[in-house]
Specification:
Blueprint lengths: L2 E4 L4 H22 L4 H9 L8 H15 L10 E4 L1 H10 L8 H14 L4 E6 L9 E8 L4 E5 L19 E4 L1
Antiparallel strand pairs: 1-2, 3-4, 3-6, 4-5
Length: 175
């Protein structure tokens, strides 16, 4: 599996379908990742961060995704979702022909964090005033703070724990 193209229901039901499909892709990626590329990258990214520095590890992963994965929109009116291990394999080969929009960047961030023991969830948010979900992000559970911290891989400036404001209730699926 290289990339999923998904036909969806409309409205909030379609968004829930996307979140569940994204969860399936992460779980399948864990199984299909025979050479453990996601785990290898995560370990390399956090290699200089003390094992006890939870926020340092989260920040290292978040910053790596922000600095190395270029935001690229999907094909017009087609929802594309790229498996995290495929995205990293293509990155490693210098071939970034796959989409890497907010959902792909959220999936990759979640997968990298999961691979080193963090509990994550994918979230759909409505960041425009148009009453529809239009953005995906990831949250990570902090054992230090005992709460979910939103992460915005597409934003170079938002720190850990600060997400774009949602004008609708956040839809989330735990991985």
């Amino acid at each position: 599996m290289k990339m999923e193209k998904i036909a969806l229901s409309g409205g909030d039901k379609g968004i829930k379908e996307i979140l569940l499909k994204m969860k399936d892709i992460v779980i399948k990626s864990d199984i299909d990742d025979k050479d453990r590329i996601v785990k290898r990258y995560a370990k390399s990214i956090i290699s200089k961060v003390p094992i006890t520095d939870e926020l340092g590890q989260i920040n290292a992963i978040l910053q790596w995704v922000r600095e190395n994965i270029r935001y690229t929109p999907d094909i017009y009116q087609v929802e594309e979702i790229t498996s995290p291990h495929i995205l990293l394999s293509m990155f490693e080969k210098g071939n970034m022909g796959f989409s890497s929009d907010c959902d792909d960047m959220a999936l990759l961030t979640a997968s990298l964090l999961r691979s080193i023991g963090f509990k994550t969830r994918l979230e759909a948010v409505a960041i425009k005033h148009n009453d529809r979900y239009d953005h995906a992000r990831v949250s990570v559970f902090s054992n230090t703070y005992k709460k979910w911290l939103p992460l915005e891989p597409t934003s170079k400036s938002l720190p850990i724990g600060k997400g774009f404001k949602s004008y609708k209730n956040i839809l989330a699926v735990e991985l």
